[in-house]
Design goal:
The protein has 3 domains: 200 residues, no CATH class; 74 residues, Signal transduction histidine kinase, dimerisation/phosphotransfer (DHp) domain (Helix Hairpins); 148 residues, Histidine kinase-like ATPase, C-terminal domain (Heat Shock Protein 90, 2-Layer Sandwich). 54% of the residues lie in helices and 18% in strands. It has 13 helices and 11 strands.
Length: 468
Amino acid sequence: MKKNISILLLSAIAILIVVGIEIYLVSRIYNLEIEKFDFRYREILQKGLDYIDKLDKRGDNPGLATAFYFLNRQSQKLMPLYKPEAADTAKFKAVVLSGFHKILVQKQVLDSLLRVYLKNMKVETEFQSNFSITNLVLADNEKVVRVFDKIQDSSMRYPDTLNINKKLIPVNHYSYYADRFEIGIDYYVDFNNKKAVVLREIAGSLIFVFVALIAVCFIFLLSMRNLMEERRLSQLKTDFINNMTHELKTPLSTISVATRTLENDQILDNRAKTKETVSVIGRQNRQLTKQINHLLEISMWERKQFSLDRRMLELEPMFSGLVEAFRWECKEKSCKLEERFSFKTKSAYLDEVQLTVALHNLLINAVKYNTQDPEVLLEVSCDDRLRISVTDNGIGIGKEDQKHIFDKFYRVSTGNVHKVKGLGLGLFYVKQIVLAHGGSVDVSSRPGKGSTFTINLPIHGKNQNSFS
């Protein structure tokens, strides 16, 4: 078991490593596709911008011409306000830079012309753009004012105009010289559905990775489930061996003592004592035979070699005889057994021997698993199906145990494995008999509130191997 747990832990670590590697690979693929997208569309956009530049035969850029016109007028207004000796010269430059950026963004029609080009090329047209001013100089007839230079000035002084999102694609650089100003501009573009396009490109890889992860996790969970089931069955096996040893040891010990007693000449001379001792040996021998037969019956069920011997049975005499025999068996245990019969259909095709054994197991459990004077109610009704229920006032069964009580060798824990004798085969045998008849068995119970076992059986059938 420790070896299995170690293997399970190693498997979990391996799965985590595989998951990490796959996430890393998917991330790498995604980033590469982003780079491919940027490279491809940068080329398309640059061709579009070259095409737009050629629209004006004078050499002016039609997308920025209007903006440059307004920038020239803005420079003419601002130059008289510049005082080089003023203390707030840096503030003045920042205001000028911000104002030029605002005019540039508002008055440019480059985006519109570029969208028309992209539409004609039948590629994605929805994008966002931005401009970054790399250098700006104002001038008039008397002086020249260097407002900003990207290389010489710290970008920290002008965060609003120079803070370009890293996702934007740098497409082109423009330099423009006019009477009143000189400007350098970087043009950036970001496509709105870039992520969607890239995800479509890698959809196959993502699906493969997702399916692989599901498969790996499923196999791991299945292995973990099988390991837990193996552990549970191993515990059941250990409990069964302990119980079986206890159940066989008791009659064997009694037979051993009784045998040694018969070796005593005084006992042999006493006919009554001899007869009593022989009776004890016979009784314990029958108990051993009963336990061995239980194991043989279980072996037959597992090999699918068990056949029912169904016959047409009169129901009321059968169940009345069962009740009477059980009352005699529990006469010394202060057991109160009440029966309620309702037979609209008087007979059914059943295996009397096997069904009697199944009901006897339910009735004897109602007496065994009880801490007070047992009260048992046997209800039997028959119309189109035979319905049998056994209700007791015993210790009850918890929900978790109810899932396993019909499993082979399973026994509900009572705090002491030998407090209540048994091999954990009774309810397993009940279910197998009921299933062989084509019926079902259910339990309803709460700890401390007793239990009700209900059997439903069809009333028509033929002699057959129920497992074939």
